[in-house]
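Kindly inspect this chain:
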Amino acid sequence: MNAPAPPDRTEAPTSRAGLVLVVLITLAWGLHWPLIKVGLSEIPPLTFRGTAVIFGGLALLAYASGRGERIWPRRREAAALLWTSMCNVAIWQILTAYALQQLPAGRGVVLAYTMPIWGVLLGAIFLRERIDRPRFVALALGTAGMGLLIGEDLLIVGQATVGSLMILTAAFIWAVGTVSTKGFSWTVSLPAMAGWQLVIAAVPMLCGAILLEREAWAIPSAGPMFALVYNILIASILAYLVWFRLLTLYPAGIASISVLMIPVVGLFSGAIILGERIGPTELGALILVVGALAAAHQPWRNARAEGT
């Protein structure tokens, strides 16, 4: 990483712009998790992830080029793109896909969103972002919400040790990628940077798919095909573009906290799509996570109201 900018000098967005992006990414990636399970029912993991990522990345590069934006990275950006693409996309996508085959449907994904904890801590260490009172309250409420969701599954998770370790590792590496992306001074445009990360990450996934999964290839039925198309258009193109935009608007810690609502949406959409149970635990977690988001974004709303 390049030397990071001093903490919290990120330009404060309007509350409306920031919250719209948070809502978009929450819905896009929240609905994404049960659809992964649908897609993986007929499409092998590396094939499913690699196909979505390569088409998404190429579409973003084409979009940036069509707008006349800078898409070719400078030499100093090559290593940064390789590193961040592995953390933000390749390792995250591969580990979570395989972990979801071992953990209980829907609820296991909550482990992935321990990422905000690592994002806040790594942002404080490497980007010198302050863990002020609102950020601490947001992190505490969000962690409590995640703990509430995880609590009753601890015995099940303990029986799926490999899957649990895979998804927790993915969460930490995603946080590393988040801080790395935030701390680097990019010259390529935002869509181009997102596109290159997806394209680079697709290479090991597709190579692995050709070597390990070719014999399992078949034309999927309507449900898994819809899941694949959703992963290309929404979870790859739209969501990654929104995610990197959030990183330009907020400090890495705040952006990380902003995704805390995703596993809750994943649970509720899982109930609709996969017939999973929802009860008082899920509703309590929803209240805590909404409180976390309100606390995290309050300083930005105050800054806007004061005209700073």
